[in-house]
Amino acid sequence: MIDIDTITKRYDDTEVVSDVSLSVPAGSIAVIVGTSGSGKTTLLRMINRLVEPTSGRIRIDGQDTHSLSPHVLRRKIGYAIQGHGLFPHRTVAQNIATVPKLLGWEPARIKQRVADLLTLFQLDPAAYGPRYPSALSGGQQQRVGVARALAAEPAVLLMDEPFGALDPVIRAKAQDDLRAIQRRFGTTIIMVTHDMEEAIHLGDRIAVMDGGRLLQYASPTEILTAPATGFVESLLGAADRPFRLLSLTTLADVVEPGTADGAPLSADATARDGLSALLWTGRDAAPVQSADGAPLGRVTRARLMAAARLPGQAPV
Prior knowledge:
GO terms for molecular function: ATP binding; ATP hydrolysis activity. This protein is of the alpha/beta class. Helices cover 39% and strands 24% of the residues. It has two domains: 236 residues, Rossmann fold (3-Layer(aba) Sandwich), CATH 3.40.50.300; 64 residues, CBS domain Like. Helix 14 packs across helix 15.
């Protein structure tokens, strides 16, 4: 559990973060979203004391972060940034091993941890461990950056626009990889992004900031269906809200009894992907099957269109 209690950061007469309070449950992902200058990165950096707050307290599992020396605190918290931040003069393996070495891990344990993380990120340890960052693609560098942040098995991982420099295809894969890894390790993650689509895709809860203030902190569904202010609503984009609602639902949640012609859709696919497939193929319905190919029923365009409307909204 991370508790941020009335945190404020002031530079001279300017408050860049104003009286922010929120709690992040252990093992969840909280995403801080806002425009440039909203205070989101400053808030993130106050958690590991790269920026010292003017007032307020931050506690991790009940422990005040000011009870630890900054360097000790930072070794307990993973930190990944946009552009990966790898040391160019160190190999991939040496980069990942940075914090475990500082913590005095045994060489055999470090070697195994590096190999495990590279394998987890689908990078062969023998092939990629000896390489230098310049020999990697942008997506590979970013994966190594996240692996380095996870190397010392931190309970908390902070991420500042980690995928902002990646192209859309690689970015989507990196987001899915992060979600899978977070579920495997149970890491508590706080991520900063300006991309509401990314926030909705990854966040268990989303914190929307503007002008240094926290405007809303809620689940993606609540943010979409009940935005607290006009600014929050504008970030969502009126045209995109129905599709973002559908992205939070799988076809397994909207399947109904019956049959349909044509290629089946996977129950694990999002309702958004299901509607896209129906519109693209001109069908009103499609069969739905489980991962092992077992038929589960069908999904209809009408059912998906209903799921895309806000509660209480009348059909068009």
